[in-house]
Amino acid sequence: MKTESEIRKEILDLVHELYRIREQNKKFIPGKTRIHYSGRVFDEKEMKAAVDSVLDFWLTLGKRGREFIKDFTEYMGMKYGVVTNSGSSANLLALSALCSKNIRKPLRMGDEVITTALTFPTTLNPILQNGLTPVFVDVEEGTYNIDTEMIERAISQKTRAIFFAHTLGNPADMDKIMDIAGKYNLYVIEDTCDALDSRFKGKLCGTFGDMSTFSFYAAHHITMGEGGAVLTNNYELYKQVLSIRDWGRACFCQTGEENPSGACGHRFDYKFEGLPEGYDHKYVYSNVGYNLKPLDIQCAMGIEQLKKLPSFTERRKHNFNHLYNLFKKYESKFILPRWLKEAEPSWFALPLTIREDAGFTRKEFIAYLESKLIETRMLFAGNILKHPAYKNINCRIEGELNNTNAILERAFFIGVYPGLTEEMLDYMSSAVDEFMNLR
Ligand SMILES: Cc1ncc(COP(=O)(O)O)c(C=O)c1O
């Protein structure tokens, strides 16, 4: 009879073989194969790691979750990390932790958070979900990032935090943001979901503010299918993020710990006012929480993906440069992306805004690209305040949102993800040249 480890090896060898066969059959046919704006880039290692984890059948968050978050936190050079089931959950946790009564200076209902209306919805939603008031400022043309000149103007007695994204991987001006935050004593949360491995002055995005959030959805810089993380150097905030992720419980031992008395050895040693002496700390609730944990299987893939991040980043930069140079020829028609001289973006995608006098519309250009099977996407919500769900939200707008509205009307993005090959880039270039030559 075969041993368990022999069976496991056979299964994993077959997975490897399956991957090899699929790879052999992969072929790019110009005009026939769809060019995605993003996608999973993986090899047999992720497939084997996922299957290996399934074979364990632990399923819920466990040793691979602990390994992933340790590796990720170390890669980022941060002290504390919490893995989540999505980037949206990471954002919700970060904002909810800031509102926890267990921290020294919690945000309270009606407090203001400065953000942008050019946003992914779940960057904004946690502000609303926690009863806080978003204060919208415009973004800059070309960088698509929060206009730091407007932040200071937007500050009122009630302002407590700045929550912004490094748009599409383009680092925001962290010198200015951190200066303003220091001056007015504001919390800073960096939505780094699209900016993993981007740097500002050589320092990784997501390491400047009080907390940062990440997404490991299939489209992002690394993936575990669905997934996310919150990072911080603040132990008080870390404990709240962990608690709120895990139903709000007071216990901050990691899930899956074997010791019956918890990893801390004190599971039955606490006394809380109103609760019986020694009430199981796992069932004491110190926050109004959720359950936003991923599965261990997801983390198994994340461990392998993280090892590939440096090569992914290199490829993203290469692809971005290729497509940037293509559109540079047509600068009179497109507003090209801009980045700060201190910034080293690992682009999520290449954003473009069609100039008002280009002689063609976004709709026409996108329809053309899509007809050539080149995928495009809108810059998330454009101006989220124009969307049905957000028409009557309680908010304040500082100044005009002119650039945000221009993005709503005329911007879009195309992919630069590591799965784009030279053949695909060449095909994209000739398709764009063909459209422009017809003008
Ligand atoms: C800037 C930004 N924040 C948050 C999210 C949400 O991440 P997820 O899809 O993992 O929930 C996204 C999604 O792509 C995003 O682009």
TrEMBL record:
Q: Which Pfam families does the record cross-reference, listed alphabetically?
A: DegT_DnrJ_EryC1
Q: Which InterPro entries match?
A: DegT/StrS_aminotransferase, PyrdxlP-dep_Trfase, PyrdxlP-dep_Trfase_major, PyrdxlP-dep_Trfase_small
**Could you provide one GO biological process annotation from this protein's UniProt record?**
polysaccharide biosynthetic process
GO molecular function list: pyridoxal phosphate binding; transaminase activity
Extract the CDD domains matched here. AHBA_syn
Native organism: Fonticella tunisiensis
PANTHER family, alphabetically? Answer: DTDP-4-AMINO-4,6-DIDEOXYGALACTOSE TRANSAMINASE, TRANSAMINASE
Q: What is the lineage of its organism?
A: Bacteria, Bacillati, Bacillota, Clostridia, Eubacteriales
Give the protein's recorded name.
Answer: CDP-6-deoxy-D-xylo-4-hexulose-3-dehydrase
UniProt lists the family membership as follows: Belongs to the DegT/DnrJ/EryC1 family.
Q: Which UniProt keywords apply?
A: Pyridoxal phosphate
The cofactors named for this UniProt entry are: pyridoxal 5'-phosphate
